[in-house]
Amino acid sequence: MKDLPTPYYLIDESRLQQNLELIQRVREASGAKSVLALKCFSTWCVFDLMRQYLDGTTSSSLFEARLGYEEFGKEVHAYSVGFSRDDVKAVAAFADKIIFNSLSQLRQHHAEVEGRNLGLRVNPGISYSHFDLADPARRYSRLGVADKDALAEVAPLLKGLMFHFNCENTEVESICASLDTIGREYGDLLRRMEWVSLGGGLSFTQTGYPLERFCTALREFSRTFDVQVYLEPGEAAVTRSTELVTTVIDVVHNELDIAIIDASLEAHMLDHLVYRTTPSVAAPAAGPHRVMIAGRTCLAGDVFGEFGLAEPLRVGSEVRIADAGGYTMVKTNWFNGVAMPSIAVRRLDGTIEVVRTFGYDDFKRSLS
Amino acid sequence: MKDLPTPYYLIDESRLQQNLELIQRVREASGAKSVLALKCFSTWCVFDLMRQYLDGTTSSSLFEARLGYEEFGKEVHAYSVGFSRDDVKAVAAFADKIIFNSLSQLRQHHAEVEGRNLGLRVNPGISYSHFDLADPARRYSRLGVADKDALAEVAPLLKGLMFHFNCENTEVESICASLDTIGREYGDLLRRMEWVSLGGGLSFTQTGYPLERFCTALREFSRTFDVQVYLEPGEAAVTRSTELVTTVIDVVHNELDIAIIDASLEAHMLDHLVYRTTPSVAAPAAGPHRVMIAGRTCLAGDVFGEFGLAEPLRVGSEVRIADAGGYTMVKTNWFNGVAMPSIAVRRLDGTIEVVRTFGYDDFKRSLS
Fold first, then answer.
1. Residues B336-348: pLDDT tens digits?
2. In a domain, A8, yes or no
């Protein structure tokens, strides 16, 4: 990769495939279908691979639904926190299922899409999230319908329900307990449905996850209520597949060594700034050399973190930030006009393909 | 504006001009030149107006410097936290002044730009910021050179120094005290320079700001050390000039009324999410009707805030978010694929011009 200037996102299809194979195992063992959550990852240059293992896509807007339809194919689930009337008309051309967020959205728009496979998001009042910002059952949540009587009333309009209530949930017992609660609370309603989406935020592709226990719970839930279960993996589909490859452009010292790389936390891995979390470094390997790694924007807090590395960083050193696939490329921005990472893919056969580079014209066109 | 679909940013040139006239007054009364901080605002469709009142632009990357050169003209100050060698070569074609962030950057690159007007950023160890994230003198800061002996050593290579140490500083006494400190600590060095930039983050265009006191302090500083002073207004240049115009697409109730608008805090006014602050609503006016205003992405925390408004919000109501000019359009992103606000300008003669709309192809091209 000497020819490709940093920074770039490098998506490794072999690593992606490891996640996809686990998702396929869940499908086979539990009957649960999986649709890719485009809000987390919509880098369509690897959809040819992902399509072989997934049942389609789920979306949060008209544009995402269209992207799923055009570039992924298979099932297109179209959800939005708020569809406009025009959105609903347009999305009906692409979507297999249209999932509304509220009773008022359903009432406003269902006539427009009569006879279609419609769903409604439920706020079950339970959730799993380490972050209030991402907690769909937080106080004043606008996500989904909490009123069970009202749900029963509109059930004849619906073929399915969406329960999206997890964020980075690594605990299988938590999801099993939630399924029990949902079954107990919504059982009558579930029996009237054809499908139930359990949303995303389930970290079931991580190493050591008790997949059998997970699959058993899904299968039992599906059988008990006679529904097709859907999962919406986003991070679970792409975890550990992608690195942000950067080069050190300066090393300064202020109490400790600070290596400035040619990327930015805010512009290229935004969630770590928003949630005040720290990414991992994939290379150099861990070791005794303490260094703070920081971005090249003018933001004082554009800091990736403090790390112990096997070698000291110098101008020209390569630094690879790990796990740069989910919720990164979908929210890059042009802050400071710093160079936007290219997008490259290591295909299954080992060849590396540069699928997108960005230049000054892209920056200029982002404004006016 | 019935023809322009929401959401859109509406930049009002008359309001912009009010700020620009204050900046010009400061120039006349203090001798301090002002260069627009493109990191805050780089929507070049209003540069024809801004150019008449400002001395040029300052930038944080090669792309911003080029934009300043191509679209603004006049003086181009090129700063970067980290220039690569290629950046330095390229930026030399545009820049009147090149400002390095560190001794190592200066040492690495000065031979490449010999004879040019070079500056160096100083970390004076003092700062004014309500946010640690944006505090350039925070612990482990990588922004600027703190070592005074080293500064004296490289002074022969330099024509100027940049002190950027404020963020949203509304207190004139604070800036006066800082100027005294800087004069006392760096006086000898300052006398060897032609220019000194005091950076941005000074809220001197806000209503009631004691401009005379400010100008006197700047003029005295400039005379004492015989330097041309530069200011780098960003927010001060565009404050109160721009609204984000949106439409309510749904109203739901969960303890309180929640109006969902066709925009997003994360995608379109990112800093409020990062800093956990709340924007103001420009319209409807303030009043007794309590409502939470939230965005249309799937993020639970995509919430603009709770407001009391003169009228209840209904589907179709227009909501204008105030002060949407600074640090907004420069960091929009395509999270959830929600529609990107267009950019419109109310020109001085009152006509409204739509200068940029974004569509599905822009979304798709942001990925690959």
1. 999 999 999 999 9
2. no
The predicted-structure confidence for A243-297, as pLDDT tens digits, reads as follows 999 999 999 999 999 999 999 999 999 999 999 999 999 999 999 999 999 999 9
Task: Give the distance from residue A190's alpha carbon to the nearest chain B alpha carbon, in angstroms.
Answer: 23
The pLDDT tens digits of the residues spanning A46-62 come to 999 999 999 999 999 99
Picking from A238, A271, A305, the residue at the C-terminal end of a domain is A238
Please give the Cα distance from A43 to B218 (Å, whole number).
51
Domain count, chain B: 2
CB contact at 8 A, A158 and A191: no
Please give the Cα distance from B143 to A296 (Å, whole number).
Answer: 10
Cα separation, B3 vs B1, whole angstroms: 5
pLDDT in tens, A128-170: 999 999 999 999 999 999 999 999 999 999 999 999 999 899 9
B248 and B190: one domain? no
Tokens 């960091």 map to which residue?
Answer: B331
Nearest by CB to residue A60, choosing from B331, B333, B336, is B336
d(CA B326, CA B168) in angstroms, rounded, equals 12
Q: Which residue range(s) make up the domain with A43?
A: 14-238
Do the Cβ atoms of A266 and B331 come within 8 Å? yes
Inter-chain residue contact B140 with A292, CB threshold 8 Å: yes
CATH code: domain of residue B271 = 2.40.37.10
In a domain, B154, yes or no: yes
Tally: H helices and E strands in chain A: 12, 17
> What ipTM was estimated for this complex?
0.97
Domain boundary among B213, B238, B263: B238
Would you state the structure tokens that stand for residue B157, as one six-digit string? 């290579």
- Among B27, B36, B85, B101, which residue's Cα sits nearest to residue B65? B36
